[in-house]
Amino acid sequence: ASENVYFGVATRRDGSSGKKKNLSHLPALWVDLDFKDFRGGEQEVWAKLCAFPLKPTIIVHTGGGFHVYWALRTPLAISDTLIPSLEFINRAFAHALGGDRCHSLDHILRIPGTTNWPNAKKRQQGRVPVGVHLRVHDGPRYTMEQLEAVAHALPPRFLELLTCNSKIKTTW
Question: β-strand 115-116 against 58-61: which pairing, if any?
């Protein structure tokens, strides 16, 4: 009743760890959008989502923003070689929409139906507990090819830098 509750989007092989080495399957990719990062707040976030090429499958209102998900038609088995590609898509979507840097596949997000309990610093800024709830839950499901096509629609010069500059590639 008084604790923040989170889940890992990627399923875990077992209960031993939430780290990447223990990830099993990925049912969706996501972006975390905080209203405070947009001059127009929630309205600007909605406008960005409406203009985005892929309609979200699920949008969770967290109180201070949205967790936006694009569900896969079939959960994807995660391998060490696939993780960088999947995180690239999360990162590209976040970049395009102005989202947070929570692209790592082992990231945890808020669960609808729970309460977002602000920490002491946020309470001092006037934040109060607020319910986490679904805003959209019936959007389309996608293939990896559809998600990759949008993620790779970045400026060609940037993609060129990613392929030839290991420092930029590692940072991105």
Answer: unpaired
